[in-house]
Write a structure and sequence with these properties.
Blueprint (H helix, E strand, L loop, with lengths): L6 E5 L3 H13 L3 E5 L2 H8 L6 E5 L7 H11 L5 E5 L3 H10 L4 E4 L4 H11 L4 E5 L5 H11 L4 E4 L2 H10 L2 E7 L7 H10 L6 E5 L2 H13 L4 E4 L4 H12 L1
Parallel strand pairs: 1-2, 1-3, 3-4, 4-10, 5-9, 6-7, 6-8, 8-9
Length: 242
Amino acid sequence: MAAKSLKILIVDDDADAADSLAELFEMEDHSVTVAYSGDEAIAAYKTVDFDVAFMDIMMPGKNGVESFFEIRKLKPDAQVYMMTGYSVEQLVKQAIDHGAMGVIGKPVDPRKVLAMLDDVKPDGIVLIAEDDPDFGPQLEELITTSGFQCKLVKSGDEALKTVSEQTVDVMILDLNLPVIDGIEVYTQLQKKERNIPTIIITGHAAEHAESLASMRDMEVTGILNKPFDPSILLSRLEELAA
């Protein structure tokens, strides 16, 4: 048993995973609060001085990275373990396995994008989800002048809204989007069985490494890859409680 009881916050939109982790910690006599979204986590930090938090990175709405930054504004010395079950490489493999049209690395060759669109010959909208203020409009102009109907959005939530309201034949999806990132957009559409032909634009791990590097600069307590060994979690807690 740990040297002292800790106040622990678990943040995960997967209720089963969050509740199971809470039970594990409670068995060790820790005081546990569960939040199922980034906003709930931030609200919890406003009322409780937690010793440590375990936060999932991939959550709808405010993701774990954004939530971490907000929490650090409230409590600069907050100790937070980031949990993730996804890597960019895993997403790309899954996308290809589920019929994604292809993956294009940055910098993007516009000719490759047009070649992919020519293979599909969409009748509906080509949706571009890209927040780069220069590249997004350039890609939109290129596709429009090539004879396709096109819509440009600059965030993941706008992309999901467009898919729900309009007929989207093809989606060009940057993985590094604000509000809801491209990984979450893609996984949400897969969960809803919206199998839209998708061209993924990614700088691969380098883009997400930048986010992780930012967290390390702010002294994030650690990063845990799912699934993880419960004994590792307990040993980390014992170190904190010692």
